[in-house]
Design brief:
One of its GO terms (cellular component) is membrane. It contains 14 helices and 22 strands. It is of the alpha+beta class and about 550 residues long. The protein has three domains: about 120 residues, Pleckstrin-homology domain (PH domain)/Phosphotyrosine-binding domain (PTB) (PH-domain like); about 140 residues, Probable inorganic polyphosphate/atp-NAD kinase, domain 1 (Rossmann fold), CATH 3.40.50; about 270 residues, Tumour Suppressor Smad4 (Sandwich), CATH 2.60.200.40. The two termini are about 45 Å apart. Bound molecules: ligand 1PX, adenosine-5'-diphosphate and calcium ion. The site of adenosine-5'-diphosphate has 20 residues, from helix 4.
């Protein structure tokens, strides 16, 4: 056995076959040898993908030692299964060395290599499990698939099974987090959002920064967030990892992978309402969410069921959308790029926005200042009647739509995509929805437009019969009882003047005209509402008029 600083070599046996094992720089490989010492196939594992090395013949589940000798050691590593290598499993190979001494040296050298090359791996994690997310299998998924991998990799974890909504967020905001390298959510996008709010909020609290001030520069966050998918849509996991698979996600966490992510901050006037990473949607997606809350017992299917109901209600809503376009020279939502870890557009954006930053550091936020947003171009205004207005920081791909709401959106370029679907006939809208599930371009339709943007504002047309206070109040009622969205027409009178009455009559005539064109109106919407609600990563927002900014994290 030769031992240099980065090169270790010896012959080993795997089963009955003889191999030459080599640890060289960043790789551990073993090459099969035939009887005449001729090389056959080689298996090579980057040290960065080694999960653990243990003496003896070790099994992971149940963690027991099979019959072994003092010449054996076992290597656990990331093995790519399928889907273009996106699904990962735990690979395990048991090696038998010529002597106990050599075995000890191999184990020691591999452990040293792990320590040297893998300094970004977590040692201690705080895990939050939502036992009611998705199919209610969060606990089981964690205990049977994830915890054994963490244990094997020497990661200690403190587990909190939540008993109420926002418990995880409050825990992160208030409790002592010393010693934790990251927080893990076992749940869906809603649960991820809780952790995100906790992590961003905590960091700003400690830095004495007000998140409500839209012009403030946010403090970078040190704590990483890991996601084990156990929810209904799980699009943050799907769009970043490429698959919704708890073992794959656990392995990404174990080897210390990290991916910066854009975040959209949603303000109402000068109050921060929420942050979003996937969907901020008004109209169809808002209505689907409001409807789906009544059918939570159905689990993930509630979205499909509610989607059908809302589709049949055939609604559209008036609105004014203002947006600040991103630089079209850099990327476009109509190009055919697909953003993955290491994406060129994202790394160039980091460099352009923050020339002296370290793009590989952990989850950190760096908000573009108000000044730079305002000085970077003209706001464009679009007014009309929309089936839906959707904003997404990332592609928002999920198993329901593997290419997502905006297939070429970037994970971390400081921009989002604004999708405007104008009012159209039911068949047109169905075509739009259906194209999310096929290879056909969902933006190549005359009533759809998509823009890559830095910021967006949404307001209701001033000539409507809206009263701010009453409108927000009516949304609060919808939040308490989503059925209200279907029952009541959210409209309010302002005064009794002649002009008002004339406008009211005109509006009524337009409505009657629209009604004649309506193809179907289910029992849930005999009186279509004038205002929808915003769906922000699966939460209904309490305001209609909002402004959104995309931030690079
Ligand atoms: C005809 C087939 C149409 C398929 C249309 C698929 C569109 C899929 C777009 C997916 C965007 C996902 C954005 C993610 C949002 C999540 O953050 C958020 C929270 O997730 P969580 O519950 O895991 O916490 N999820 C959601 O808000 C759910 C939105 C899901 C919308 C699905 C709508 C299905 C529509 C089916 C319409 C069928 C019409 C058929 C008429 C006969
Ligand atoms: N123990 C709990 N009881 C009730 N709600 C919870 C609990 N833990 C988390 N939540 C909330 O449930 C919502 C949905 O959770 P999520 O994990 O995203 O599941 P799903 O994908 O099925 O919507 C989140 O907004 C989260 O705040
Ligand atoms: Ca983006």
């Amino acid at each position: 056995m030769e031992i240099e600083s980065v090169r270790v070599e010896s012959s080993v046996w795997v089963g009955k076959k003889r191999f030459r094992a080599l640890l060289s720089g960043w790789y551990f490989s073993w090459t099969e040898l035939d009887k005449k010492n001729r090389e056959k196939k080689t298996i090579s594992v980057p040290i960065g993908e080694v999960v653990a090395v243990a003496e003896g013949r070790v099994e992971i589940q149940p963690q027991k030692k099979a019959e072994d000798t003092d010449r054996d050691f076992t290597l656990f590593y990331v093995k790519r299964r399928s889907s273009g290598g996106r699904i990962w499993t735990l690979g395990r190979t048991q090696f038998c060395c010529p002597s106990r001494d050599l075995r000890d040296q191999w184990v020691a050298q591999l452990k040293t290599a792990l320590k040297t090359h893998c300094s970004s791996r977590p040692h201690r994690l705080l895990v939050f499990i939502n036992p009611y997310g998705g199919k209610k299998r969060g606990k089981e998924i964690y205990l049977s698939l994830v915890a054994p991998l963490f244990e094997l990799a020497g990661i200690s974890s403190h587990v909190v099974v939540t008993e109420r909504a926002n418990q995880a967020r409050d825990h992160i905001l208030k409790k002592d987090l010393t010693g934790f390298d990251g927080v893990i959510c076992v749940g869906g996008d809603g649960m991820f959002s809780e952790l995100l709010h906790g992590v961003i909020g905590r960091t700003q609290q400690e830095a004495g920064i007000s998140e409500h001030d839209p012009t403030v520069m946010l403090q970078p966050c040190d704590l990483h967030i890991g996601i084990i998918p156990a929810g209904s849509t799980d699009c943050v996991c799907f769009a970043t990892v490429g698959v919704n698979d708890p073992v794959t996600s656990a392995l990404h966490i174990v080897i210390g992978d990290s991916q910066p992510l854009d975040v959209c901050s949603v303000h109402h006037q000068s109050t921060l309402v929420r942050y979003s990473v996937s969907l901020v949607g008004y109209g169809f997606y808002g209505d689907v969410l409001a409807e789906s809350e009544r059918h939570r017992w159905m689990g993930p299917l509630r979205y499909d069921y509610s989607g059908c109901l809302v589709y049949l209600c055939n609604r559209s809503y008036r609105g004014i959308v203002q947006y600040l376009p991103a630089d079209p020279q850099i990327s476009s939502p109509r190009d055919s790029t697909r953003c993955l870890s290491g994406c060129r557009v994202c790394s160039e954006s980091t460099e352009r926005l923050f020339p002296h930053s370290d793009s590989c550091s952990s989850l950190y936020s760096r908000q573009l200042s108000q000044y730079s947003i305002e000085s970077e171009g003209e706001w464009i205004s679009v007014e009309g009647r929309f089936r839906c207005v959707s904003l997404t920081c990332i592609s928002s791909s999920c198993p329901r739509s593997p290419k997502g709401l905006s297939p070429s959106a970037h994970l971390a370029d400081g921009t989002g995509d604004l999708i405007l679907v104008r009012d159209t006939n039911p068949l047109g809208f169905l075509t739009y929805l259906h194209r999310h599930t096929t290879t056909q371009d969902q933006f190549d339709l005359p009533f759809v437009e998509v823009h890559r943007v830095k910021a967006v504002r949404f307001s209701l047309p001033p000539d409507g019969d809206y009263d701010d206070e009453e409108r927000e109040q009516s949304i609060s009622e919808v939040l308490e009882d989503p059925e209200k969205l279907c029952e009541s027409d959210i409209e309010f009178s302002k005064d009794g003047s002649q002009q008002y009455l004339a406008e009211r009559q005109k509006e009524q005539e337009m409505k009657d005209e629209r009604k004649k064109r309506e193809f179907f109106c289910g029992p849930c919407c005999s009186k279509p509402p004038a205002v929808s609600v915003w769906n922000c990563d699966g939460e209904i927002l309490p305001y209609t008029e909002i402004s959104c900014r995309f931030k690079y994290f």
